[in-house]
Amino acid sequence: MSHHYSKSTFTTAQHEVPFEMEEIFFSRTDERGVIAAGNEVFRRVAGYSWDELVGAPHKIIRHEDMPKGVFYILWERIKRGMATGAYVKNRAKDGRYYWVYAIVSPIEGGYVSVRMKPSSEVFGTTRALYAEMLKREKEEGISPEESAAAIREALKTLGFSSYGAFSSLAVTEEMQARDKALGRLADGRLQSLKDLLPTLEELNKQQNSLFESFAKIRSIPSNMRIVASRLEPAGGPISAISQNYRLMSDEVTNHLGGFRVEGGKRSLTESVMARVFNGLFMVATSRLQREVREVARADLLKHTERDGFQTEVEVLTNLMDRYKLESGSVLSSVFTDVTALTRSAKDLRQLVTGLDSIRVLCRVEAGRLGAQSASLIPVINQLDTFHVEIDAALEQIMKLADRIKALVEEAMPRSLTGSIYGSADY
């Protein structure tokens, strides 16, 4: 059966297919993207019969206004087993269009795409980006791969570290906008995770400040030894102080490794932030998955779906359970790492207190030397500045880490925390 239609068929191409905010639709395909099943909302909005849809490639509903780079990113990610969200403009059989936010999830033997009506501010920003990329694809002839790279670069200028980070925030914003439009209570778990992001950014800033401060003191013991060689015989008090300060500062510097992962290539905070974005995606998606599963179960009981629809309910249930488990696992790992970070900050503060006592001894010795200590004063002043900076940074790090732990605990599933976060333990 042919699924091609002439341009004359699309008499209402500029009009949008209406569907309600509460309506969610889904489709299931094989690994090639060939449609195997879906729900009645999907069929109705697309405007095809089931005979036309089942066995047809999913691109039967692809709209020409969509940049090819978006589908390049989507397929690149889902082929790697990564569930991915994207704004998609689709085309109905009669030429009309409809926008969705789609979550495409790999499953055994294919993929499931769950779609909802988009309405957040992120949606408006994305449409403008799509229009720009589509124009470049047409006028500059850039390839889908080049378009995908350009989309990722554009997202970075908007403040997103990766497409995954964008996808996570987009689905969260859409779920929150959906809740508001349907008169639902705000989702505390999603809000807690969103609040984590600026807190983590501030924590990363404080960590970088910490690294910079310690980098400044690397030369202090050497400077102290040079001054000591001018003021006293070898092995004198200032030489001993410089030696002790060097040993302890080395220990402190080594302890900074607790703030880094991946062999020192990445800060622990950056690693945590990446997982928070992942957790945000999982929590929002598990909610959407729960909702579409409940709708599918209700439709099955009302006999409004096709024969064999029980299989789709089972697929959706398995996906919901998977997202629930993965979100809990991700947030548990975040909580564990933030707890370790707090412990590292406290240990580091104790070591810095030891360094501070050596600084005090240095000042006492300078007082004993009187006018002779003039060359030592700049070194002591440098130490004073360093210790003020480091104390302030460590205090902020511990406060921020405690705040992050509290927010993560609020966002974790009830089964993992023993706390009650509402009626839905998703």
Automatic annotation (TrEMBL):
Sequence ranges assigned to domain PAS fold-3 in this UniProt record: 39-107
Keywords, comma-separated and alphabetical: Receptor
Presence of the UniProt keyword ATP-binding in the record: no
Keyword Cytoplasm: no
Matches recorded under Pfam families: PAS_3
Residue ranges of coiled coil: none
Listed name of the protein: Aerotaxis receptor
Annotated source species: Celeribacter neptunius
